[in-house]
Amino acid sequence: MGTLFGGRLARAGHQVVFVDTDPARVAAIAANGVWENDIPARCAAALPGVAQGETDLLILFTKAQHTAAAMVQNAGALRPDGMVLTLQNGLGNGVAIAGVVGADRVLVGITNWPADLLGHGRIHVAGHGMVKFWSLTGADTPAIHRVAAALAEADLGASAEPSVKVAIWEKVIFNAALNGICALTRMTVGEVGDFAPARDLALQVVAEGITIALANDVAVDGERVRQAVAFAMTHHRAHKPSMLQDVEAGRPTEVDAIQGGLLAAAHRHGMTTHALAHCTALLRSIDHIVRSS
Ligand SMILES: NC(=O)C1=CN([C@@H]2O[C@H](COP(=O)(O)OP(=O)(O)OC[C@H]3O[C@@H](n4cnc5c(N)ncnc54)[C@H](OP(=O)(O)O)[C@@H]3O)[C@@H](O)[C@H]2O)C=CC1
Ligand SMILES: CC(C)(CO)C(=O)C(=O)O
Fold first, then answer.
1. Rounded to the nearest whole angstrom, what is the distance from the C-alpha of residue 79 to the centroid of ligand 2?
2. What is the pLDDT of residues 31-53, one digit of tens each?
3. What is the pTM of this model?
4. Are 51 and 19 in contact (CB under 8 A)?
5. Which of 133, 162, 191 is the last residue of a domain?
6. Ligand 2: distance of its center to the CA of 53 in Å?
7. pLDDT for the residue numbered 273
8. What sequence ranges are listed for the domain Ketopantoate reductase N-terminal (predicted)?
9. CB burial class (10 A; 0-12, 13-18, 19+) of residue 121?
10. CA 250 / ligand 1 centre spacing (Å)
């Protein structure tokens, strides 16, 4: 996702620095730029902590389990009035970032652009997407509109959305269902849509997620979530959700922030779930094997 957003912002004329913990990846991006499908963009690249005090927007696209560490390592890159934007999946990323830079410098949101990593700085984008975001505090600030304009110019389909909390919960329900079932079955989004038992399980997780959100006073629109799932099954058919890409690469997944975040919200209200609880247990078992090997 960093490759997609950074590459497009660079092509739109912004000065972009890619920051990553892997020295080989940093060297490859510095030498070859980044590639979205077969479109290149030239950019700088650095290890965490190298860029100092010049950045007016830091877009954080690590996995959720790395959010706090990445923020601590990279906060020094920000100008005193610099902002941080998270479009990561899962619950809790904005609050983790606020713990480092303060809530009034955090923009939170979602994106459904489907990006599949092919190699260092090289992605395949399997369809069109959008971005919705707003400030973590709920305040309307000039920074929101500056960032929305920059993302729109970079053809990332961005809109400033005051009710972003609802969008974040709708997205986490979508991801709990689709990313989880794809990661467990190793099917693409289209394959899950085509196979009734997998599709039905995804829709059960969606139904449970909607009940959990409503119990937590988040007014999600169940029909909109089901439509988003149907849209992805039709238009993002070849995409391997980020959680499946993690399983295939033998990396830990975002189960704790996505399925685990929803499950914790269910437990806060004494609710029992079935499909979500079983998927979470299976995904945590895969994570356990990865972490202990
Ligand atoms: N891929 C997709 O289509 C979509 C993904 N998302 C969400 O966006 C977020 C990013 O996903 P995605 O791009 O797929 O993830 P990737 O795992 O491909 O990219 C995350 C990158 O962050 C690097 N990283 C880890 N720790 C740090 C650190 N401390 N400082 C700097 N870089 C670090 C990782 O390095 P290393 O690999 O060495 O750990 C990796 O290169 C996730 O929350 C995901 O759920 C949302 C919508 C769509
Ligand atoms: C692109 C999308 C929406 C597909 O599940 C996603 O969020 C992901 O891959 O993590």
1. 31
2. 999 999 999 999 999 999 988 88
3. 0.96
4. yes
5. 162
6. 32
7. 97
8. 1-133
9. buried
10. 14
Domain with 254 in it: 165-292
Q: Which ligand is located closest to the Cα atom of residue 61?
A: 1
Long-range contacts of 117-121 (CB under 8 A, 24+ apart): 117/3, 117/245, 119/28, 120/22, 120/24, 120/25, 120/28, 120/29, 120/32, 121/3, 121/18, 121/25, 121/28, 121/29, 121/32, 121/33, 121/34, 121/35
> 3-state DSSP call for residue 77?
helix
Total domains in the chain come to: 2
* CB of 271 closer than 8 Å to CB of 212: yes
| Nearest alpha carbon to residue 264 among 176, 165, 166, 167 | 176
107, containing H or E segment: strand 106-111
Beta strands 55-60 and 78-86, pairing class: parallel
